[in-house]
Structures are given as structure tokens and as C-alpha cells.
Prior knowledge:
Layout: H1 2-7, E1 14-21, E2 33-37, E3 42-49, H2 57-66, E4 78-86, H3 95-106, H4 111-114, E5 122-130
Parallel strand pairs: 1-3, 4-5
Antiparallel strand pairs: 2-3
Amino acid sequence: MHNIKHNxxxxxxxxxxxxxxxxxxxxxxxxxxxxxxxxxxxxLLELRFGFMDDQNVSRALARCRKEGFKFEIMSTxxxxxxxxxxxxxxxxLPQWQDKLFIAMADSAIDPTEYxxxxxxxxxxxxxxxxx
Length: 131
């Protein structure tokens, strides 16, 4: 939606990707993804990883490609959401707890690294969230 809003363009092929973490340690490769064609321009791709799996999206996409899902990773853009947390004075928690939570959230691993996405293909869209 942000791409349409800012660039006034709808790409020829759009994939809405959802990544789910299963309640099992490992998900077999054959059960790793589901592709649903929604229309000529839109597909829904669901990737599933176990909680102990390395959530390597690039590798999972390569497997999808081997099985017929057509895309070029180096001409694909990945849109990720980024949240900037801001402490609100009326949050109900002591200020030190708000600051500690924000510091922990800021030190979390970058999603581009965590999901093994090519850094030069990632677009981050941000928002500020008051906690």
C-alpha cells in the first residue's frame, strides 16, 4: 500500500508473505511453504519455520523457485515494518521500566539479518508507537 501511495504504481507481480513460527522445534522442508494465487497480480506466500529452525527466508524462497514459483531475488523488493518505541508519561509503568523495555527492543537483531534477506533489496517503513 505504501508503494502505491508514494510511487503511484502497482507492480506486475506482488507477493504478500507471512512468516509463521510453529510450536514445534523443526518444520520439514516439504511443509515449509504454501503459495496461494489470489489474482493475476497478487499471490499469498506463507512460510513456516519451527522455533529452532534458522528462519532463512532467502533459502526458503530458493526452494520455492526450484518448485516453480517464479521470481528473481535480486529484482525483488522486501518491505519491512519498523517501529520506534516512545515512552509515554502516563503509561502506568515507572519510567525506568519503559526505558529498559525500549532499550531491549532497540538492541534486538535487525529483521534483515534475522531472516537472511539481501540488505540491498530491503525497504523499511517506520512508525512511532507510544507505550
